[in-house]
Write a structure and sequence with these properties.
By secondary structure, the chain is an alpha/beta fold. The protein is built from 20 helices and 10 strands.
């Protein structure tokens, strides 16, 4: 009887180890296939203290090519991260099409701690979970596989493991006062975790996978098996030409009835040089003062410039920033994505440029390229540009929830004025570099671009993120109007902040 009792666990143990090895080999193969097919993979490992997150991640990565993944250990946000929206630091770590991103704790831990410590209201927590759902859906629609593991541990088992860590001088440092406090509030954390599941456990999209963690080998096998199943399924779908599950559905497109229209723009507005100079000085001094106030109150400012080629965006931006402190603003010129940007979600490069609270970022062209040039030129699919409206609205709402003053300009000129400016550039040696064959070619697609712009207004003219058409046939008028709109937006945000 004793011999039998001894042999059976040994056989069972060997069987599990063989299965772990087999699943590991299959996962390594699928990692290579996912890289070849450009499939990003995002893995979240959450759990209460001492649940074994580090151990499971270590077992997970053993069979993988170390050049194809990155593990991010998420601690409390540092000062730089606190000055950006909640999801900013996670967007920066999202995987490219060639990589696997593994999170040891994630956006969820931040929300759990905020809930337990009473530093977030229930209304704001609900809003944050909505932001998380949107973020994960955007990742999935972009082709990313998301796997969310939660390692379950009982309070008794947690106490045993914490005691073992404390008794070892090499690991005692890991049991901090904060960890012990979490253990003491085990029930509170369990309740918060249940709320997290309720808010973000989305079946068939990004469900939570609960893993009992008492047995490391059993937990490892379950994690590897789930990863192999998910990667294998997506690899087959990509080979078969199938889109991600949510992206394959009819995209939801917002609609704003009071959106502006290019046809209603009055391009006859004009300003004399004398009046312009006087008005410019007054407004630039005002902007200078407001820039200091923005920094003092830690208000982030994002200004978007879109418009026709030769519309005057560059000159407009120069007059806006002429008296600003150069240490407190940055102008981001947006062109075609480079090789690094192409292998990330299209919003990644804009999230990474979000300004610190108290600073100003001006985008010379922006994320709206997805529904303008990429749409008209066929650089993305119809499904992609249609779903982009919702994604853009969600991103801008995220910015506003952080207290951002957001301004969006379309600089409008007519075709005759554009032709006159093109010809003037062509004849001016110092400005000829601004003109290229693509500018001339785009004139032939004026109507498709005009239709795309009007639909952009219709889909993204949100009440708290409206578009302003800047009538640009007269550059002087356009510059003054833009300054007035920026001044009004900042003053409004300062008034809100001061309440």
């Amino acid at each position: 009887m004793d011999a039998l009792t001894y042999d059976e666990p040994t056989k069972a143990k060997k069987a599990i180890l063989r299965k772990i090895e087999e699943q590991g080999e299959e996962l390594a193969y699928l990692q290579r296939k996912a890289r070849e097919l450009g499939i990003p993979v995002l893995v979240v490992v959450e759990g209460l203290s001492a649940a074994g997150k580090g151990t499971i991640i270590n077992q997970m990565i053993q069979p993988l090519d170390p050049r194809g993944f990155k593990v991010s250990c998420i601690a409390s946000p540092n000062r730089d991260e606190q000055l950006r929206p909640f999801l900013w630091r996670f967007w920066r770590r999202t995987p490219s099409a060639e990589r696997m991103a593994i999170f040891d704790r994630s956006w969820y831990r931040s929300l759990l701690d905020a809930k337990i410590n009473g530093i977030i209201s229930e209304a704001d927590l609900k809003k944050a979970y909505a932001d998380v759902r949107n973020f994960e859906r955007q990742m999935r629609d972009g082709g990313t596989i998301i796997l969310k593991f939660f390692l379950e541990i009982s309070k008794k088992e947690q106490a045993i493991r914490l005691a073992a860590l404390q008794s070892n001088p090499a690991t005692a440092w890991r049991v901090s006062d904060a960890v012990l406090q979490r253990h003491g509030r085990y029930k509170d954390y369990q309740d918060a975790v249940e709320q997290m599941f309720k808010e973000t456990d989305i079946e068939d999209q990004s469900p939570w996978i609960k893993i009992p963690s008492k047995s490391t080998k059993d937990a490892t096998l379950k994690v590897l098996t789930k990863m192999v199943t998910a990667l294998g399924k997506r690899v087959k779908e990509v080979k078969d030409g199938k889109p991600p599950l949510t992206a394959s559905k009819r995209p939801s497109r917002p609609y704003f009835r009071n959106a502006p229209s290019l046809a209603r723009a009055d391009l006859s507005n004009n300003l004399s040089k004398e009046v312009y100079r006087e008005m410019l000085g007054v407004r630039q001094r005002k902007i200078q003062d407001l820039h200091h106030e923005v920094y003092r109150l830690r208000i982030p400012v994002v200004i978007v410039y879109e418009g026709w080629d030769a519309g005057g965006k560059g000159g407009n931006i120069r007059r806006l920033t002429e008296r600003m402190d150069p240490r407190g603003y940055e102008v981001i010129p947006i062109s075609a994505p480079n090789d690094v940007e192409k292998v990330h979600h299209y919003l990644w490069r804009f999230w990474t440029e979000f300004p610190k609270a108290g600073h100003v970022t001006i985008f010379d062209r922006s994320w709206y390229g997805r529904v303008l040039v990429e749409r008209v030129e066929g650089f993305c699919s119809e499904t992609e540009w249609k779903q982009a409206y919702r994604e853009i609205n969600e991103m801008e709402e995220n910015f506003r929830n952080f207290g951002t003053a957001l301004v969006k300009f379309w600089v409008q000129i007519d075709q005759d004025e554009q032709l006159r400016r093109f010809e003037a550039r062509e004849q001016n040696v110092r400005k000829k570099w601004k003109l290229n064959e693509e500018d001339w070619r785009n004139r032939e697609k004026w109507k498709p671009y005009e239709d795309a712009v009007n639909e952009m207004f219709l889909r993204t003219h949100a009440p708290k993120a409206p578009w302003t058409i800047i009538e640009g046939n007269c550059k002087r008028f356009a510059r003054i109007k833009a300054l007035d709109v920026v001044i009004d937006a900042i003053e409004t945000k300062i008034a809100e902040k001061s309440k």
